[in-house]
Amino acid sequence: MAEQFAERVVRFERPEHFHTLLIGTDGRFLGIDGDGEPTSFAVADDNVIWDWCDGEVRHATTGRLLAIDDTAVEVDGERFAVAHGPEKLPSEYLRTFEDNGWVCLTCVLSDEVVDGLRRVACTDQHAGLEPNRRRVAISQHVAVAQTAAEPISLWLVRQYMGTQDISMAHSPGMAVLTRDDGKRPVQGWHSDYPYHWGVPAPGQVPVQLGASRLGVQRNVCVSDFTKVGGATAFKLGSHARNEGPPEDWGTAARYASRSYRAEHGLPYNGPDADIVEAPGGSIILYDARTWHRAGVNRTDNKRAAMLQAMVPMYVMPKVDMSAAYKQFAASHVYADITERERTELEALLVRRLPGPPLHGALGTDPELVALVRKEDGGRTGY
Question: pTM (2 decimals)?
Answer without folding.
Answer: 0.94
